[in-house]
Design goal:
Elements (H helix, E strand, L loop, with lengths): L4 E7 L5 H12 L3 E5 L12 H5 L11 H12 L4 E7 L4 E9 L4 E5 L7 H6 L2 E6 L2 H14 L5 H23 L5 E4 L5 H16 L2
Parallel strand pairs: 1-5, 1-6, 2-5, 6-7
Antiparallel strand pairs: 3-4
Length: 206
């Protein structure tokens, strides 16, 4: 029996997944590693930038989930992985990889991780961060314009054409597979503290 625990943190875009992830990393440091599903977007090196911009990045098929499943198995068995790195500014996988070492707790974070039952089967504790749609779109606009160099028009267009419909088709229904639903994400200090204590109990139990 592996003593590595895998925690899933899912939820819609801008729901507060990163806040919870960052809190756990800050609290437990070297005992926690993070695998971002976004880094497993499929590579499209052969496609022009203009075409890459038009792809639906909110559908489960846009991810190389097979590679992530393989990497999770490797981490669970105590092996390190070379995780791909996705570059949002060019809508493509970069040539870089990041070394992720196996730790006592592995966090898997992403909007669609519960849409695939095979991923769910590998996760010990499935958390879903549930935040109102209007709050999420405002956070997404702020993030994509300020951090990812997108225009306001492109963010709104992407939200209406793919993000919102895919959320309703895949992300929201996947909530039913969660063990814990946290309203308001990292601002829900009571729920956050419960998760912290559960992780602490696992790490302390040598």
């Amino acid at each position: 029996m592996s003593d590595i625990m895998i925690i899933g943190i899912a939820g819609g875009t801008g729901s507060g997944k990163t806040t919870i992830t960052d809190t756990l990393v800050k609290r437990f440091g070297g005992n926690v590693s993070v695998v971002h599903h976004d880094n497993y977007y499929k590579a499209h090196h052969d496609m022009p930038y203009e075409e890459r911009c038009l792809l639906n990045y909110d559908h489960p098929d846009s991810f190389d989930t097979e590679m992530m499943l393989e990497h999770l198995d490797m981490l669970k068995s105590g092996k390190s992985i070379q995780c791909p790195v996705y570059d949002y500014s060019i809508h493509d996988r970069s040539d870089e990889t990041v070394l992720i070492e196996p730790t006592r707790v592995i966090i898997v974070e992403g909007i669609l991780i519960y849409a695939d039952p095979r991923v769910c089967d590998k996760i010990d504790i499935k958390i879903f961060v549930d935040t109102d749609a209007d709050v999420r779109i405002l956070r997404r606009i702020q993030r994509d314009v300020q951090e990812r160099g997108r225009s306001l028009e492109s963010v709104i267009n992407q939200y209406l054409t793919t993000v919102k419909p895919m959320h309703e088709q895949f992300v929201e229904p996947s909530k039913r597979r969660a063990d814990i639903i946290i309203p308001e994400g990292g601002r829900n200090l009571v729920a956050l503290e419960m998760v912290v204590q559960r992780v602490k109990a696992h790490i302390d139990h040598m």
